[in-house]
Amino acid sequence: MDLDRWLYRIRLRLRSLLHRGKVERELEEEFQFHLSHRIDEEVANGKTPKEARYTAVGAMQGMEQRKEECRDARKVTFLEDAGRDVWYGLRILRRQPGFSVLAILCLTLGIGATTAVFSWVEGILLRPFPLVSGQDRLVAITGCDRSGRTAVSWPDFVDLRKNCTLVEAFIAEHIFGTTLSIGSRAERATASIVSGNYFQALGIRPLLGRAFEGSDEIGRKAHPVTVISYQCWRDRYGSDPEIIGKTQMLNGVRHTIIGVAPEGFYGTFVGYSFQFWVPASMEELFQAGGYKLENRGARWIEGFALLKPGVTVAQAQSEISAIARRLEIQYPKTNRGRGIKLYPLWQTPFNGAGTLLPTLRISLVVACAVLAIACANVGNLLLFRSFGRRHEMAVRLSVGAARGRLLKQLLTEGLVLAFLAACGGIAIAYASRNLIVLLFPANTGIIVNLPAEIDWRVLVLSSAVCLASSVLFAFAPALQATNVDLAVAMKSDSGGTLGGRAKAWIRSTLVIVQVSLSFILLITAGLLLKSVHEMQNSDPGFSTDRVLTTGVDLISAGYDPQRMKSFEEILLDRIGAISGIESAAFAQVTPITYRPYSSAPITVQGYETQTGEQPVIEYDEIGPEYLATMGIPLDSGREFTRADNETARRVAIVNQTMSRQFWRSADPVGSRFQSNRQWIQVIGVAKTSKYASLLETPKP
Question: 323 with 276, same domain?
Answer without folding.
Answer: yes
